[in-house]
Amino acid sequence: xxxxxxxxxxxxxxxxxxxxxxxxxxxxxxxxxxxxxxxxxxxxxxxxxxxxxxxxxxxxxxxxxxxxxxxxxxxxxxxxxxxxxxxxxxxxxxxxxxxxxxxxxxxx
Length: 108
What we know:
- The chain is elongated, with a radius of gyration of 33 Å.
- The chain has helices spanning about 15-35, 40-50, 55-85, 95-105.
- By secondary structure, the chain is mainly alpha-helical.
- The chain has a domain at about 55-105.
- The longest helix has 27 residues, at about 55-85.
- It has four helices and no strands.
C-alpha cells in the first residue's frame, strides 16, 4: 500500500491529502475554464440562460390526468360492452354501478 508523502518526505494525513487533491482539482478547473473563455459560442450562452418549455409542467400534468380518465372510461366501456356482452354505453350509467355495488356488498 503506497503512502502519500509531501515533497519533504513526511507522511500526509488524510485531511492534508484531501486538501492537496482539492487544490490540484481547482487549479486544473481554472486552467480549463480560462482556456475555453475565448471559445465560448452562442450555444453555450443559451445553456447558461435556461430553456423555455413548450408546455408548462402544470399543463403536462393536466394532460396526463385527462388522458388517464379517458383511458379508464374507455377500458370500462370495452370491458362491459365487449367482454361482458352488454351495451358499452350502459357502463356509464349510475344504475349499472349501483347494481355492481349491491352485488359486491350483497345488499338488495
